[in-house]
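Project standup — Tuesday

K.O.: blocked on the structure for the chain from last sprint. Re-posting the sequence here as requested.
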Amino acid sequence: KLAKILSIELTKNHILKLLKKTSENQVSGVPLTWTGQKTDLTELIYALHSAEVFNNGSANIKLIATAFEELFNVKLGDYYRTLQELRIRKGSQVSFLDQLREKLIQRLSAS
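H.V.: unblocked you, prediction finished:
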C-alpha cells in the first residue's frame, strides 16, 4: 500500500511539473535564450542582488542566479569566480551596466 501511495504521489508531482512547463511555454510562445556574454548576465545578477530587489533583499545570489539560468536557458558556471574577475577589471568594473544605462538614455532621448 505504501508503494502504491508513493507512486501516485510521484506521478502527481510529475504531471504538475509538466503542466507548469506547458503553461509557461504557452504564455511566452518561444523561450528566451540569453545570447549575450555570460559575464554580462552575471554582472546584472550581482547588481540586482546588491540592490536587494528580490524577496525584500533576502534572496541569496545562488537562488537569483539559478532563476536567471532557468529563465534565459543558460548555464553561468562559476559566477562567484566571475565576480572576482569583475573586481580586477581594468577600466569600468561594470561595463555592461554602463552600456545598458547609455542605451536606455539614448532610447528615452529619441522618444
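K.O.: great, moving the ticket to review. The two ends are 67 Å apart (CA to CA). The mean pLDDT is 85.
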